[in-house]
Amino acid sequence: MIVIKGIAASSGIAIGKAYVLEDEEIIVNRVELPRELLRAEVKRFKAAQKATHRDLDAAESKVLKLLGKKHAKLIDAHRLILRDVLITQDVPKRILGEGVNAEFALSEALEMVNQQFEKMEDEFFRERRHDLFDVGKRLLAHLLKQDKKDLADIDFNCVLIARNLLPSDTLGLHETKILGFATDLGGKTSHTAILAQSLEIPAVVGLSDISRRVRTGDQIILDGEQGMVIINPGPETIAKYQKAQQRSLQEERALEPLRGQPAVTLDGKAFHLEANLDSPDELKTVVALQTDGIGLFRTEYLFLNRQSPPDEEEQSRAYQQVVKSLEPRPVVIRTADIGGDRLSLLGIEGPKSETNPFMGLRGIRLFLRHTDLFKTQLRAILRSALKGKVKLLIPMVSSLGEVQGVRRLLAQAQSELQAEGVEAAGKVELGIMVEIPSAVLILEQLLPLIDFVSVGTNDLIQYTLAVDRINEHVTHLYDPFHPAVLRLLDQIVRTCRKKDKWVGICGEMASDPHAVPLLVGLGVDGLSVAPRMHLRIKQTLRALRFGAMQKLVQQALACPDSDEIKRLLSDQGL
Predict the structure, then answer these.
(1) DSSP 8-state assignment for residue 335
(2) CA separation for the pair 217, 18 (Å, rounded)
(3) Is 506 considered catalytic here?
């Protein structure tokens, strides 16, 4: 029995036979071409670029379907690489200047960048080179007309062992018999690791030479919790890990009876427990969970993978499908939180570039500048409201003027539909996302114009703590338990209570079982959570006492740092 320690990339246990993926060496030869063929060679390279763009469109659709908008940003990163001057300009220059074939020109350009990545000390930036390789391999495959090995062809349950897996390899693993994977290369911050976590595939990376130490058919235990791979374990070790697997499965099964049960604390305090919806592909799962409704229907998916914006008919059909499936339960439809960078892809003139798009032209800021886009979505939402209970939610609100602008355009959309004789709801409840600190501070002035509040904790934490949570240098500072975050949430709830307005949480904090006791104690009206966490959050909530959590929150609000807040929760067994 051999035990190898690596980096725990994605939790879970996988037990099975090894399948060793041979490292695909793509051999590229230098071919000198006559001058009259060089223009045609550049054309061939540009055709490979177009084919790779189509690959990325298909990959984005798959990511959106499986994992939602957050992970679709990975494909945006790959698109940026594909549009980089390294590829769009340097490769054609090499072809024309050196008189060489496109494959060789591309491989030389990629190698130059790889050497620059190798010199970087920071793991996060070194890991980004795998995204470059992913795009490079796609391009080379089109140029060489090579078919990629399909992991779906593996015909037995196995643990995949490889030198490295690219994000595009990882994305298709849920459709295979692969139980988990272990790689020589990689770190916890790689996109491969992040995708594995989201797909709930156990993974251990950074094992140095496991692809050389394992043979196909070897018995493997992969422990994604401890970052450990055991090669040819003994019967006792296998039995121990099988028991651990069973315990985990039993915990999952124990949640099943909670479907359809009310989200009520032990002392009788009821909460709305809804689900977030990234696209209608998740609709069947959400309906089966018997949630109290959809607390956040993200509509960004409608604006992706296309050259023009979705029209009113398309949007109306999409919203009606969701609303009818949930009727009579409410559906909160959020207007699209897209950025200015998306406009050019939709054939609309937008900002040439934004150095910090998270704080740029996005959300309601973009829609108030492009009112035609906004009114089209508002009209479609009003039409869908005839099919069930619809609420309208506006993202990225930071000022009173923005809410007044929304009210004005909403009234215009209603008047236009009425004048045209188009059937639509005369009124829908209007809510705002509170995710910017300025909105918290002026909330009392905003509340008379709106019907409800939904707190987006992801951005609220990011903007309050000045932490870009995808920046490896500061990601450890992104802290939902920071006293400033808790005090802001308390201020939001108290302000809403004063004006008798409904308030809920729809960010990731609502899907964290450790944070739920605090949210319950703050006295929010509802939580909207990721579908995969719905039953677990319900289990957590039903085991709490509202009165006890209120007292706990008062203690937590006096804590000077997050460690003390976490200690307070831990002392209560939470």
Answers:
(1) P
(2) 5
(3) yes
